[in-house]
Specification:
mainly alpha, 88 residues
Length: 88
């Protein structure tokens, strides 16, 4: 299989329909949109320690400032980080 076959382009409408059917099949009652999946993808990458430049490339953003929008969601997990000095 060539690498070109992995990058099939879908219209926004087709992609939304595919996601809607997949959510229904998974018995997800909440509305799921392509943007929600894109946002979740970026947020999870950021929380896993992926650098912003890599996320910028993966999302196809021209500007790093656009990618930085995703950092606000990831900062909520910072509250859960324990300071190792607190256990001394």
């Amino acid at each position: 299989m060539s690498l070109r076959l992995l990058f099939i382009q879908y219209s926004a409408t087709s992609l939304a329909k595919i996601i809607k059917v997949a959510a229904r099949n998974a018995k997800i009652l909440k509305v799921v949109t392509p943007h929600m999946l894109r946002h979740s993808f970026a947020t999870h990458l950021l929380e896993a320690g992926t650098d912003l430049r890599t996320i910028q490339t993966l999302l196809g953003h021209n500007s790093l400032e656009t990618t930085q929008m995703y950092t606000y969601a990831a900062t909520s997990s910072l509250r859960d980080i324990k300071n190792p000095l607190d256990s001394l």
